[in-house]
Amino acid sequence: MTVFKTFWKVVNHYKGTIILYTVLLIVFGGMNMKSNNQMDFVDSKPDVFIVNKDVSNKITDNLISYMEKNSHIVDLQEKEEKIKDALFYRDVNYVIYIPENYGSLVLNGQNPKIEIESTGDYQASLAEMLLNRYLKIQNLEQMAYMEQNELINAINENLGHQASITSISSLDEVGLTNASNYFNFASYSILAVVILVIGLVLASFNELNIRKRTVTSPMPYQKYNFHLLLSSLLYAGCAWFLFCFLGICLLGKTVLSIRGIWYMLNALFFTVSALALALLISTLTKNKNAMNGIVNVVALGSAFLCGAFVPAEWLPNFVLKIAHILPAYWYINTNNCLKEIENLSFGTLKPILFNFFILILFTVGFILINNYLSRRKQRID
Amino acid sequence: MFWHNFKYSVKTLLKNKILLFWVFAFPIVLGVFFHLAFQNIEKNEKLKIIDIGVVDDLQFQNRSIFKEALNTLSEKGENQMFSITYGDEEELHEQLEKKEITGYVSFGKDDVYLFVRKSGINETIFRYVIDEIASNEKIINHYISDGMSYVGNENVDFNMMIQNMMQTIESSQGNIENVSNENLSYTMIEYYTLIAMACLYGGIFAMVIMNSKLANMNATGKRTAISSLSKGKLIISSLLASYIVQLLGIVLLFLFTIICLKVDYGHHLPFVILLSFVGCLGGLSLGIFVSAMFKKNENTKTGILIAFTMLGCFLSGMMGITMKYTIDKYIPILNKINPASMITDGFYSLYYYGPNKRFFFNIISILLFTIVLTAVSIREIRRQKYDSI
């Protein structure tokens, strides 16, 4: 029990690190969660800001009300710098500047110029489509109707027509996206918490004076190693349980389901591979500072290259190819598959079982390399 | 003595591998990760051609306006919006399930039915375009029925009328002018926070060098304390050495990000250099402050400095680009006192607005931060005497 107790005493010394990475997971895993749970089709709405330089009149108000209905109107101060900052940071996708006398110019049969600022992305294209459609119909109806109310009625009647749309997927898309994002980010926290803490704890056990005392103690070498391994396993299990428990608290019923069990099982396989990697790194170096550097590079590298921070579908192909050599790639791939699979069955779960197999291979590989290196080091010693 | 101490301080710092890793190599490694992860983000946000299906049955064949419009929208070229697969409903449904298409459209006598797999931006665009064609169809049909009632059924050239009306619709586009700023690449913020991080991390050099001059820290400090040399001279030459090494790291990072990662710092290189030099001064003062104010061992002091830097970088957008904006919007005071945000905002304003009032406000803020921290540190360490240690 001496080794076991000492292990946890040293772990307690690094509780700040564990808290830090757990808070990061809660902040970033929870930050991007969407709350829409509707199963029916819902239109995407771009974030729009309207600067109206015209006086209140029915024509201008109708345009504004159409944009309000089909987009999110962002609350911003009407200052140039605030608007430009909002555009840069994508708080707004599209800014519409309605010019002076817009309403009266339209009623006079003109097509007044509207200035816009756009981020040029999908949402901005959607906002431009909305605006263009409105203006096109306004210009067409203008030919037939000169009276203000008639023109507005004609525009609204035309815009009111919508095709019937059916969504064929029965998946809780928003909930599953939230779950995948959470577990994807968890890969970073798991790697950091498991590798860094186990590495630092084992480095403490491997300090020269401690090592000398251990070697001369009556405790058999095998028992000592077995206790260390057991403590490391228990610690990794606790880390896994903590992150799954937080997942349940943040995601609720999405994780408390059969699919949720697959997410957690995936996290377990990944945690075990991270543990094997931690043992390998602690064999490679006993220097705590060097370990800090290695862990940061491994954890951040895995998170950036495998799709924990940026969705994998946005990463270049060559980056994803490189990422195949990291366990995090297979773990994140499973999370992304779980988000998409319509019905869970042996057939649809095959890619996930394959990913589990690869994670097991990584674990075995790390253990074998670790054994080889420690044996070599012992011989050298 | 000044230059002698300067020379050996530079040597000591450049031989410390751990320091060199965190200040020189780590920002470069992080920059490579940023580059690999973010290089496609903005490209992926641009509207791409959407794969859709059209149920090719008798009803569709009767909707000549839809046929014409979909044909135009799927023509190869700059304005191509859709890539269309024509087929029967069962086939398209299967393709939709396999995610080969975003959605498909089928036609009733007068109605249009859309089928998609889920809600999403491509699906919404698909819907808006189909709605727009349906609106145009309605207007054209209205026009044709008006024409028929006027001239009689047998005298109407339907195709000509449809062509005319389509042309009228096409020429009725809104008069929209795009006045957006060209510099809208928001991933640049990540690199700016990286520079901010490197500037502040550089404070570790100042901290290490200051620790070696403090009697309560190590043997070198004790020897320095009892020597007859001017402490002021020693400290200034050591800090100058750490500033030079810090600048060396920043120059390396700049060269790497500009040459290898193609980072755009705008067209105002002298101001970029000015901001980095001032940013390094901020880092230097932070290192002196941590060294002077915290009576802890070197590892704890390093931990404090790294934690402060990372927190500052987190708030200035390193781990999520919108974080800085959110803080600016809701708790602006936090970013006004955060040196990482001052540096990031300085680079941002230079890139987005050019060297304006905001840029110089950031420069002055960093200088003020430096002066305050240095003054407090000097007050703490001057005239330190120990009866026994």
Index terms:
heterodimer; A: about 375 residues; mainly alpha; abc type-2 transporter like fold; 2 domains; four-stranded mixed sheet; 15 helices; 5 strands; B: about 400 residues; alpha/beta; D-Maltodextrin-Binding Protein, domain 2; about 70% helix; elongated
Would you write up a description of this structure?
Chain A is 70% helix and 6% strand. Chain A has 15 helices and five strands. A four-stranded mixed β-sheet of chain A has the order 2-1-3-4, covered by helices on one side. In chain A, helix 8 (173-205) packs antiparallel against helix 10 and helix 8 packs antiparallel against helix 14. Chain B is of the alpha/beta class and 389 residues long. Chain B folds into two domains: 2-41 and 187-381, no CATH class; 48-170, Periplasmic binding protein-like II (D-Maltodextrin-Binding Protein, domain 2). Chain B contains 18 helices and five strands. Chain B is elongated, with a radius of gyration of 33 Å. The model of chain B has no long low-confidence stretch (mean pLDDT 86). The interface between A and B is large, with 77 and 74 residues. Strand 5 (164-167) of chain A pairs parallel with strand 4 of chain B, so a sheet runs across the interface.
What is the alpha-carbon Rg of chain A in Å?
29 Å
Structural class of the helix and strand makeup of chain B?
alpha/beta
Which H/E pattern describes the elements of chain A?
HHEHEHEHEHHEHHHHHHHH
**Beta-strand content estimate of chain A:** 5-15%
Shape field of chain A: elongated
- Give the tally of β-strands of chain B: 5
Q: Count the strands of chain A?
A: 5
Largest interface: A-B, 77 and 74 residues
Helix content of chain B: 55-70%
Which percent bin holds the helix content of chain A? over 70%
In order across it, which strands form the biggest sheet of chain B? 2-1-3-4
What strand order characterises the main sheet of chain A? Answer: 2-1-3-4
Shape of chain B from CA axes? elongated
In round numbers, the mean pLDDT of chain B is: 86
* Mean of pLDDT of chain A: 88
Q: For this entry, what is the oligomeric state of its chains?
A: heterodimer
Kindly give the count of domains of chain B: 2
**Largest beta-sheet characterization of chain B:** 4 strands, mixed
